[in-house]
C-alpha cells in the first residue's frame, strides 16, 4: 500500500467524458490498495474565460477579486470528479483550499503556499475515501481566497504530496514523460526514466515546459518523488504506462550505469541579446549597467564583457527575456549618461541552447565537447554561461534545430532504432 | 442615510456589460449616502450549465458535491461585480457564504438559512465599502458548501437584509413590479404601489412568480420591507423607477384610501384535477385517500366531496400539482382496495383562478361577487377553495383569460386610460 497524489491538468478535465476517464484511473489506484488524493485543474479554456471576464470588467482588476473569480474553475471540476468517482463506487469528497485549509501568502494572483495541515487530510484518506482538491487555490490570512498563478496546480499537487508525506506525486499531462530533447526537433529523442530535480529545473528554465518550475523547486525542497506521465496513453490492460520519475540524486548515482553524462538538451528562443558599445573600462562600469536593470526587476542571464585592448573602452553583451526587452532598453536609455556607453544594439534573432546533466559534475570536458561539435558545423557562439550541471550557449536562432540535433548525437542521446 | 440590500438576478448579471450597469445602479445608491450590500445571482444560463454537468457526471449525484459545483456561478459574478464597482471608484469586496458566514441547515441543494452574523457585515459596510454577496449559497455545520435551491438568491437577499436590519431590500428583476394581474392577459393591469406579505404569498403560490415564495415568507417573518423593481427600465435621469413595495399590513391600513378591496388576480395552469368515483361514504374514507398522498409528499390543494344522496357512495375530487400527477395516480392505484373507489378520472385541462386581497377580511360578499361574475359568462366552477384573504376557483383552462379579465373588471382593478 502506498499513499499517492495524482494531478490532472485542464486537458484531462475538459468535459464530463474525460473526467470519467480520470475517475477510472483514480479507481485503479484505489483498487490497488493505495490511499489517494487527487489535485485537479479547471477544464481547459475555463481559466482563460474567467480571466477575460476580469479583464473586461476592469483592466486594473483587484487581484483579490480576480482570485475569487478564477478559483471557481477548479471548484467546479473537483466537485464533478468527486461525483464521477462516487458513480464508480469509489468514496470521494472535494476539499476546497479554504476547507483544508491550504494557507498561502497574501500575494493575490501569485500566492505562495506556506503551510497546510497534512494530518487531517491524511486522516480523511486513511479510511479509503479519495480526497479531491482543486489545484491553484488557497486561502490567505484574513480568510481571503488566493490563487498561485498560472500553472499553479502542479505546485498544489506537490504541496499536497509533501503534506501527506506521499510516496509519489503523479502528474498526468498531455505528454508521456520528460525527453532528452524536444521530439519534434529530434525524432530520436528518448523518454527519460529518471531525471533529478536539479536537471528538471535547468531543463524547465530553458524552455522544456513540462512542469511549472516552482513545483519542481518545491518537490526538491520537500523531497517529493514526482512522476510525469500521460493522461491519454495507457498500457494494453488499461493501466498506466510508466512516465519519467523526478527524484533526488541519491536515487540515481551508482545504480544507473547506463545513464549518460548528459541528461537532456533544451532550447529557448525567448531571450533577446543586448550590446552596449564603448563602455568605459573602469571599476563600477558593469555595476552601473546591471544595478538599474535589477532595480526594475529585469532578469539578466548571460553576460559577456569584451577585452579592452588598451582603448579604455569595452563592449558589454547580455541577454534579457524577450518580454522585458522594451523595458530594459528604456531603463538603459535613462541610465545612458551614468553608464557612458556609445550605442545600444539589440538582437532578438537568437536562441539559447543548453546541455544539462548531473554527470558533468564529475566529468571535465563537457563544455569543450559542446563548442567543438558546434564549431564543426560552423555554428557561431555569441555568449556562454555555465552552472554546475548546465552549459548554455547563445547562437543565431536559424541554427536552433541543427544545434540541438548535433548535440543530441554528440552526447550519445539518440535512441537506438529498436528502442 | 439608509441601509439597503440590492439583489440582482441572472438576467441582470448576464455578461460584463450588464454587470457594469448593475455597478452603476449600485453607485447611485452609494452616492445618495446609503450603506449598501448587494446579493447577486449567477449569469443567466450558468446555473443550468453547472447543474447539467452534475447530471451528466451521475444522474444520482451527491448533493454535497452538486452544491460545490453550482455555487461557483454566484462566486464568479460576485467577484466580477466587486471589480466593476471598484472600476467606478466605489470601494467594494465580495463575501462568500463561508466567509460571512451564512449558516444553513445541511439539507444540501435545498438548505435553509439558519443564522448569520449581521454585526460584522454591518461593520464592513459602515465604512462605505459595498459588500457583494453571492446569493443561493451558505455553509453547513462541518464547513461544507450548501445551496438554497433554485431561486434561492431572493431568499439570500432577504436574509442579508434581516441580518443587517436594512431599511429596504430591493429586488431587481426583469419586471418592474407586481401587477394586479398578468399584463399579457389584461393590458389594463395596474402596477401596485404596495402589497402585503400575505397577499404576495397568495399571489406567488398561485402563479404570479415574481419572487420566490420562501423569500416572501422570510421577509414576513423578519419584517423586511421588500421592493420589486426593474433592472432594465430607469427614470429619465438614469435613476430607478419605483417598483412595488411588499410590506406589513400596518403600512397599508388607513393611509391608503384608494386601495381596492381586491389587490390582484392570479391564475395557475399547473394543477391537475383528480376524481375518485363511488368512494364508500363512511368515516375514515377521506383519510384513506389523503394519508397515502401525504406520505408520498404530494401536495393536495382543492378538495370537493359530492353529497351522497343516500347511495352510500360519493365522488371525491381534488387537485395536485401537474408534475405530481403520475406519482399521485400510482399511489392511489396501490391504495385502491383500501379506499374502495370505482374509477380514477383525471383532467389536466383545468386552471385555478384566484382573487387575493387583505381587504376581504373586513368585507363579506367577495366570493359571491366572483361566482356571479363567472356565471354571467357561463364559466363553470369545478372546485372552490378559500383562505382568509383569497378565493380560488377551478375552471376549464379554455376560460382562463376570459375569467381573469372579467374578474379584473368586476373588482374595479382596470387602470384608467390616463394612468
UniProtKB/TrEMBL annotation, chains A, B:
<comment type="pathway">
    <text>Amino-acid biosynthesis; L-threonine biosynthesis; L-threonine from L-aspartate: step 1/5.</text>
</comment>
<dbReference type="InterPro" id="IPR005260">
    <property type="entry name" value="Asp_kin_monofn"/>
</dbReference>
<protein>
    <recommendedName>
        <fullName>Aspartokinase</fullName>
        <ecNumber>2.7.2.4</ecNumber>
    </recommendedName>
</protein>
<dbReference type="Pfam" id="PF01842">
    <property type="entry name" value="ACT"/>
</dbReference>
<dbReference type="InterPro" id="IPR054352">
    <property type="entry name" value="ACT_Aspartokinase"/>
</dbReference>
<dbReference type="InterPro" id="IPR036393">
    <property type="entry name" value="AceGlu_kinase-like_sf"/>
</dbReference>
<dbReference type="Pfam" id="PF00696">
    <property type="entry name" value="AA_kinase"/>
</dbReference>
<comment type="pathway">
    <text>Amino-acid biosynthesis; L-lysine biosynthesis via DAP pathway; (S)-tetrahydrodipicolinate from L-aspartate: step 1/4.</text>
</comment>
<keyword id="KW-0028">Amino-acid biosynthesis</keyword>
<dbReference type="GO" id="GO:0004072">
    <property type="term" value="F:aspartate kinase activity"/>
</dbReference>
<keyword id="KW-0418">Kinase</keyword>
<dbReference type="InterPro" id="IPR001048">
    <property type="entry name" value="Asp/Glu/Uridylate_kinase"/>
</dbReference>
<keyword id="KW-0547">Nucleotide-binding</keyword>
<dbReference type="InterPro" id="IPR001341">
    <property type="entry name" value="Asp_kinase"/>
</dbReference>
<keyword id="KW-0808">Transferase</keyword>
<feature type="domain" description="ACT">
    <location>
        <begin position="274"/>
        <end position="358"/>
    </location>
</feature>
<dbReference type="InterPro" id="IPR041740">
    <property type="entry name" value="AKii-LysC-BS"/>
</dbReference>
<dbReference type="InterPro" id="IPR045865">
    <property type="entry name" value="ACT-like_dom_sf"/>
</dbReference>
<dbReference type="Pfam" id="PF22468">
    <property type="entry name" value="ACT_9"/>
</dbReference>
<comment type="similarity">
    <text>Belongs to the aspartokinase family.</text>
</comment>
<keyword id="KW-0067">ATP-binding</keyword>
<keyword id="KW-0457">Lysine biosynthesis</keyword>
<dbReference type="InterPro" id="IPR018042">
    <property type="entry name" value="Aspartate_kinase_CS"/>
</dbReference>
<dbReference type="InterPro" id="IPR002912">
    <property type="entry name" value="ACT_dom"/>
</dbReference>
Amino acid at each position: 500500500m502506498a499513499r499517492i497524489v495524482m494531478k490532472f491538468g485542464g486537458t484531462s478535465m475538459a468535459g464530463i467524458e474525460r473526467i470519467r476517464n480520470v475517475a477510472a484511473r483514480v479507481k485503479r489506484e484505489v483498487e490497488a490498495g493505495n490511499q489517494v488524493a487527487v489535485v485537479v485543474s479547471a477544464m481547459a479554456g475555463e481559466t482563460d474565460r474567467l480571466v477575460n471576464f476580469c479583464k473586461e470588467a476592469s483592466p486594473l482588476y483587484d487581484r483579490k477579486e480576480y482570485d475569487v473569480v478564477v478559483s471557481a474553475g477548479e471548484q467546479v471540476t473537483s466537485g464533478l470528479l468527486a461525483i464521477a468517482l462516487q458513480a464508480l463506487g469509489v468514496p470521494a469528497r472535494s476539499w476546497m483550499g479554504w476547507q483544508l485549509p491550504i494557507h498561502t501568502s497574501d500575494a493575490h494572483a501569485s500566492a505562495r503556499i506556506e503551510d497546510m495541515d497534512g494530518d487531517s487530510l491524511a486522516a480523511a484518506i486513511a479510511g479509503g475515501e479519495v480526497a479531491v482538491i482543486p489545484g491553484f487555490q488557497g486561502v490567505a490570512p484574513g480568510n481571503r481566497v488566493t490563487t498561485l498563478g498560472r500553472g499553479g496546480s502542479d505546485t498544489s499537487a506537490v504541496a499536497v504530496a509533501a503534506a501527506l508525506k506521499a510516496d509519489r506525486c503523479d502528474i498526468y499531462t498531455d505528454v508521456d514523460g520528460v525527453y532528452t530533447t524536444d521530439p519534434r526537433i529530434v525524432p530520436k529523442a528518448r523518454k527519460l526514466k529518471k531525471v533529478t530535480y536539479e536537471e528538471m529545473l535547468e531543463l524547465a528554465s530553458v524552455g522544456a515546459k513540462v512542469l511549472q518550475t516552482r513545483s519542481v523547486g518545491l518537490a526538491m525542497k520537500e523531497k517529493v518523488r514526482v512522476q510525469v506521465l500521460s493522461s491519454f496513453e495507457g498500457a494494453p490492460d488499461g493501466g498506466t504506462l510508466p512516465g519519467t520519475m523526478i527524484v533526488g540524486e541519491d536515487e540515481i548515482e551508482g545504480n544507473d550505469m547506463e545513464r549518460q553524462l548528459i541528461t537532456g538538451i533544451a532550447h529557448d528562443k525567448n531571450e533577446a541579446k543586448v550590446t552596449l558599445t564603448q563602455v568605459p573600462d573602469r571599476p563600477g562600469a558593469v555595476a552601473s549597467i546591471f544595478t538599474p536593470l535589477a532595480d526594475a526587476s529585469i532578469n539578466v542571464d548571460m553576460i559577456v564583457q569584451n577585452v579592452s585592448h588598451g582603448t579604455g573602452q569595452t563592449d558589454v553583451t547580455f541577454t534579457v527575456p524577450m518580454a522585458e526587452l522594451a523595458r530594459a532598453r528604456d531603463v538603459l536609455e535613462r541610465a545612458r549618461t551614468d553608464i557612458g556607453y556609445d550605442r545600444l544594439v539589440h538582437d532578438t534573432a537568437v536562441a539559447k541552447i543548453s546541455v544539462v546533466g548531473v554527470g558533468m559534475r564529475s566529468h571535465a570536458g563537457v563544455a569543450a565537447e559542446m563548442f567543438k561539435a558546434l564549431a564543426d558545423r560552423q555554428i557561431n557562439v555569441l555568449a556562454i554561461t555555465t552552472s554546475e550541471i548546465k552549459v548554455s550557449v547563445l547562437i543565431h536562432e536559424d541554427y536552433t534545430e541543427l544545434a540541438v540535433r548535433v548535440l543530441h548525437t554528440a552526447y550519445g542521446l539518440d535512441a537506438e532504432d529498436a528502442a
